[in-house]
């Protein structure tokens, strides 16, 4: 696919440039919005249905699993049929499934609708990053990726706070109704969207899906994919364990939990802007390497001091969250830059791999349920070391165009 400078400057007739970026940010935020909004209600939902925390947590774990699988279907399909029709079909499923979640009368039915919600929502994430590659090049693409991701991580800050403040006035059902409304807003933007894909893949649907393999055979893309996906192992381990650490371990209320969770989200919000500032003075390779090293150091701080109290835990984890967010824009830029064609497939693999590794983190953090704080710190140390070693090996072997 040809990515000419002229096309990179093409404006959307109805949405405009700013409206397009806002839509892409909203579509990219479907994962945190669909999980973080109801995190404060997660322990209470187990009590409502009379089931264990493990069964309640399946509404999170299976969501991420099927979201990941859905990406591998919708991404290649968007190369074949275009971003817009895939987006609209996925949003229709998401809206209906969100309504079904709100009306569920037992945990198993809720899990089924969460799976359908994941399948529909994955279409939004699959096309969002692909549209950035469709429309922007070079430094502009990197800046848009940073801006979009900074807007995306606002949702982890806002969603738990909003969810916690909604709970006194509504139940967890109202939170899922809110997600249905967000889906309707996104559908409105999707209807105004003009197609962004420059040229469509001419093969069959089966051949389109097989392009995933062709992308994975690119050694530069594949090596970067593993390194940057590992970061999500630590990030989603925190998402999964946060309510149990703050509410169960430290005895905080739902409202206080949301504030501490938002403190961590401030680091995520600042990361992309911090990268844009650093990149004016320091090279991309050095920033990424330093980011992984900081994750190791912060993980050690969590292991040593995180159990002393919620404030110690939050501030010890803050640098790891900051740098995990900081390395995402250059990581996404480098991965997209390695693949000149099959943008939808590349975008799907980036998002899917991130969620697969993240789902592993959600399971790993609970293996030692007696000390979730230490487990989370240890995961950050392990992830930081693995990423630093992988990043060094990629540089030495010259696998990637920097």
Automatic annotation (TrEMBL):
- Pfam families, per database record: MFS_1
Q: Which InterPro entries does UniProt cross-reference here?
A: Efflux_drug-R_Bcr/CmlA (IPR004812), MFS (IPR011701), MFS_dom (IPR020846), MFS_trans_sf (IPR036259)
Subcellular localization is given as: Cell membrane
Q: Which coarse location class describes where this protein primarily resides?
A: membrane
Q: PROSITE patterns from the xrefs?
A: MFS
Q: Which family does it belong to?
A: Belongs to the major facilitator superfamily. Bcr/CmlA family.
Q: What is this protein called?
A: MFS transporter
């Amino acid at each position: 696919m040809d990515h000419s400078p002229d096309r990179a400057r093409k404006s959307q007739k109805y949405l405009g440039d700013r409206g397009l970026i806002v839509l892409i940010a909203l579509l990219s935020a479907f994962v945190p919005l669909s999980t973080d909004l109801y995190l404060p209600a997660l322990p209470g939902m187990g009590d409502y249905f009379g089931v264990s925390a493990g069964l309640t947590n399946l509404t999170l774990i299976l969501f991420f699993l099927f979201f990941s699988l859905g990406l591998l279907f919708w991404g290649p399909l968007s190369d074949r049929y275009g971003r817009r029709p895939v987006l609209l079909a996925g949003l229709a499923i998401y809206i209906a499934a969100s309504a079904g979640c709100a009306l569920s009368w037992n945990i198993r039915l809720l899990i089924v609708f969460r799976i359908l919600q994941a399948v529909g929502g994955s279409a939004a994430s699959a096309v969002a990053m692909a549209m950035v590659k469709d429309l922007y090049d070079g430094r502009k693409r990197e800046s848009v990726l940073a801006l979009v991701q900074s807007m995306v991580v606002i949702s982890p800050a806002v969603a738990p706070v909003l969810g916690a403040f909604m709970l006194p006035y509504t139940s967890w059902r109202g939170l899922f109704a809110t997600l249905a409304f967000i889906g309707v807003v996104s559908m409105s933007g999707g209807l105004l969207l003009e197609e962004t894909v420059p040229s469509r893949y001419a093969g069959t649907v089966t051949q389109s899906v097989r392009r995933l393999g062709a992308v994975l055979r690119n050694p530069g893309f594949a090596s970067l994919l593993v390194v940057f996906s590992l970061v999500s192992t630590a990030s989603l381990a925190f998402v999964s364990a946060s309510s149990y650490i703050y509410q169960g371990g430290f005895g905080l209320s739902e409202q206080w939990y949301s504030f501490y969770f938002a403190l961590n989200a401030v680091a995520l919000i600042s990361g992309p802007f911090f990268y844009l500032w650093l990149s004016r003075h320091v090279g991309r390779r050095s920033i990424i390497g330093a980011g992984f090293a900081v994750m190791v150091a912060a993980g050690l701080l969590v292991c040593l001091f995180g159990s002393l109290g919620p404030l110690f835990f939050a501030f010890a984890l803050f640098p790891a969250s900051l740098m995990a967010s900081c390395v995402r824009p250059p990581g996404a830029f480098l991965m997209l830059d390695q693949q000149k064609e099959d943008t939808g497939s590349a975008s799907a693999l980036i998002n899917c791999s991130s969620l697969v590794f993240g789902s592993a983190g959600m399971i790993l953090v609970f293996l030692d349920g007696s000390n979730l704080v230490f487990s989370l710190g240890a995961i950050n140390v392990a992830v930081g070391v693995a990423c630093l070693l992988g990043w060094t090996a990629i540089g030495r072997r010259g696998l990637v165009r920097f």
